[in-house]
Structure formats: C-alpha cells, structure tokens
Amino acid sequence: MSDNQSKASIIEERRANLPLPEQPPVASDFNSADQSTVNVGSGGISDASDVRNDSQGVGREGTSGIPNDAVTRDAKGKKGLEDTTGKDYGYPQKSDPADSSELK
User: Fold this and answer.
1) CA distances from 4 to 1, 7, 15, 100 (A)
2) How many Cβ atoms are within 10 Å of 92's Cβ, its own excluded?
3) Where does this protein have compositionally biased stretches of type Polar residues (predicted)?
C-alpha cells in the first residue's frame, strides 16, 4: 500500500480480498408464516422455561412464618416468627473504621 492511493482504491483493494459467502443473502419475507424464510430465531414454539416457573421455598414463601426482621424490636422474640437475621459479627478488631487508637 502506498501513500498516494486514494481511500476509494484502498477500500476496493481490501474488499476484493474478502472471501465470498457460500450462498448470497436472501431478503427476509416477514409476511410469511414459515419461520425459516423470516430469518428470526425467537418467537418459535418451545417448552416452558425454568425461569418462568414458580419456585419452591424461595423468598418469603420459603419461611414458615413472618420474618423476624420484618417486625419491631419489641416483637422479635415472639412465637410464630421465622429467624431470618444472621449473627452480627461486627468489625474485626484491626479493621474497625471507628477505632482511632491505631492513629496514635
């Protein structure tokens, strides 16, 4: 490629080196009921997806009662509540951002 070639000649040179497809593309027929002529993969008839099926034991339906973090502090220990709050581990001693004793 030399510096004095025009952009159009460079484009034509590169286009000539591209491989040709096995079969030339055919215009889509969107009015056809035959999906093979429409050239679209979605919208066909398929089985139900697992994503759209109802899940068992997930979210609030998976608990046996009202989550204890959905009630006031006074009602946390009452009967019929599901323990959904995990243990509060707090900050490890060396990485507590409120501890200013390390700055001294």
Assistant:
1) 9, 9, 19, 70
2) 7
3) 29-40
Check: CB of residue 85 under 8 Å from CB of residue 73.
Answer: no
Phi, psi (rounded to 5 degrees) for 94: -85, -10
Checking 22-28 for CB contacts under 8 A at 24+ apart, the result is none
Q: What's the CA gap between 99 and 92, in Å, rounded?
A: 11
Output the pTM of the full model.
Answer: 0.27
- Predicted confidence at residue 75, as pLDDT, reads 83
pLDDT tens per residue across span 13-70: 998 888 877 777 776 666 666 666 555 555 556 666 656 566 666 666 667 777 877 8
Burial class (CB in 10 A: 0-12, 13-18, 19+), 63: middle
